[in-house]
Amino acid sequence: MTDHTQPQQPYYPPRPPYEPTQPITTEPGTTVWPSGSGGGFTPPPAEPAYAAAGPVPTGPVSRRRAKRGVGLMAAVAIAAAAIGGGTATLVQQLTSDAPATAASSSVVSGTNVSASSAGTAAGVAAAVSPSIVEISASSTSGQSTGSGVIITGDGEIVTNNHVISGASEITVQTSDGKTYQADVVGKDPDKDLALIKLRNASGLKAATLGDSSKVRVGDEVVAIGSPEGLTGTVTSGIVSALDRDVTVAKDTEGSDSGQGQGQGQQWDPRQGWPFEFGGQQFNGDTGSSKTTYKALQTDASLNPGNSGGALINMNGEIIGINSAMYSPSSSSGSTAGSVGLGFAIPVNTLKADLDDLRSGGRS
User: Fold this and answer.
1) Catalytically annotated residues
2) Whose CB has fewer CB within 10 Å in the chain, the N or C terminal residue?
């Protein structure tokens, strides 16, 4: 029998638990961890947590981890692109060799809509009420009360002609309770407009005149005036119609009706100014001397004393001068309240007539 001898396997000595210490050639900026006291290679300590304002380690391990972190943050940046630039700023800090610094938060300017009163009746009232006045016009035949709109800081005021017609003395009270004497500058009975000027007035708040050609049916409006002598009364509604033909008396004297009929008494707007609409007469006899103009119709409550006051859009602009209102008479013969049929002279009519009024107007 032939003996078969197994080939002798090469002997591999056991591998030491650590690599022998060898000289290490480093690149500039690479950290070399020193050997321990036993002469062997000592593994680097666990990677420390990054300090908020300290330098970021740049060793091999930290570089690999930084790359994985950058990839993750890049993905987050793509997914959150609609949120803002904060993620991109963080990625830039992680990849930068410069020390990381806290990102400064930017202040976003904006309007606090919930606290804004623009476009509300309350906001319009607060803004425009200081520009609306109460007018008391006295004559030998009586006294009338109406409203007016301040258009210059030195006291030019627009009102209806029928409020001041025939007056020998005009007293104006502003929203802060001050009283002034006023003179008639000019009047235009054909358009039922008049311009008066306060004596020794300055620093008044002038109203902003809007554009009545842009008014649409259904637009929200606010009316401010002194109905029944209640200074600064605010009502609201909408524009009900455009270009209504409204006929009013040119002069108050001789246009008497009701209790004043036949007595030669000046008509008091608080008792309902007479006007015609649709071939019918309302609130008294308009008399023989009358004029017709195109008017804005509104359901904002107008009452005697609102004449000459303002019809205002929701931007706080004057779009009309309130001039007439329909109010059915009660059984006692007195004038009842508003039923939502009010009329105003378009502000564009006023603007076209303003130069004439300042030069004395038309008789």
Assistant:
1) 162, 192, 307
2) N
